[in-house]
Amino acid sequence: MGAGASAEEKHSRELEKKLKEDAEKDARTVKLLLLGAGESGKSTIVKQMKIIHQDGYSLEECLEFIAIIYGNTLQSILAIVRAMTTLNIQYGDSARQDDARKLMHMADTIEEGTMPKEMSDIIQRLWKDSGIQACFDRASEYQLNDSAGYYLSDLERLVTPGYVPTEQDVLRSRVKTTGIIETQFSFKDLNFRMFDVGGQRSERKKWIHCFEGVTCIIFIAALSAYDMVLVEDDEVNRMHESLHLFNSICNHRYFATTSIVLFLNKKDVFSEKIKKAHLSICFPDYNGAWTHAFLRPCSPCRLVAPIRMTPTSPPGLLGPSLWPHQPQIQNPKPC
């Protein structure tokens, strides 16, 4: 009996120790759920975390992005070429129309993710055309990757023999997120588990599997989306969709006590766009300046404050766990 009791006590102590260790580990684990509408930049945030907290991308990993970057570049110029017809824009040089036909044919025949010299030459000639540039300036009227101008303007570098993508090249690359992608990193004795989920409407039903035990939601909203429509529904403004989604998440019963970090993303794109397209496109009642001066630190609070107010909240009170922030996407490393 004594030996049996001793063995049971030892097993009990080991079990208690294991439970205590697991509890301490759980207490140091922060579960982050990355949410937002499609094309808001969630995956870019994940890449930033890897660059900042996981020593960035290895040479081998960077090289794997070449095919994605070439694919993004080709998709972008093809989107512009197709929009030339839709928007009834003429090429500045009639010879570029032949280039466009050649490009459309080559796109159907080349190996995906490659960039033959003949194709890159055609793309560079097209990009310099005044008609193509005019069409690019009207990008809000059709679907075009945010990275289009970045890659197309620097294509000569991208196709140089021995090309290795820079961190900036990697950050701007775009692959549609499907399913759930987990990224883990540590910071100041805390272990973070970040879950990135697809933002398109068809992907949102998968979010429910991530809800349990969430420490914090990071909601990504693209400021530059105010004059754009959804990929899946060209009747719906992207900013309106983002506001609707944000409102539903803030007022969901699952998140009544969950902290929410609001990232107002793509400020650099917005800063350029606001000079040409007025905010009244999205918000008809807005009659302010054609600048981004209103985006001072306190302004996002006033913009989203009414969303998370309860019936008993004092006027002007921002929910106790809602934190607006404007991330520096293109300069991810701390100074």
TrEMBL record:
Gene Ontology molecular function, alphabetical: G protein-coupled receptor binding; G-protein beta/gamma-subunit complex binding; GTP binding; GTPase activity; metal ion binding
Residues bound to GTP: 39-44, 146-147, 171-177, 196-200, 265-268
Bias (Basic and acidic residues) ranges: 7-21
Annotated region (Disordered), positions in chain: 1-21
Binding site for Mg(2+): S43, T177
Cellular component GO terms, alphabetical: cytoplasm; heterotrimeric G-protein complex
Pfam families the UniProt entry points to: G-alpha
Alphabetical UniProt keywords: GTP-binding, Lipoprotein, Magnesium, Metal-binding, Myristate, Nucleotide-binding, Palmitate, Sensory transduction, Transducer, Vision
PROSITE patterns membership: G_ALPHA
SMART domains, per database record: G_alpha
Entry superkingdom: Eukaryota
GO BP annotation list: adenylate cyclase-modulating G protein-coupled receptor signaling pathway; detection of light stimulus involved in visual perception; phototransduction, visible light
InterPro entries xrefs: Gprotein_alpha_I, Gprotein_alpha_su, GproteinA_insert, P-loop_NTPase
Protein name in UniProt: Guanine nucleotide-binding protein G(T) subunit alpha-1 isoform X4
Organism: Tursiops truncatus (Atlantic bottle-nosed dolphin)
Gene name, Swiss-Prot/TrEMBL: GNAT1
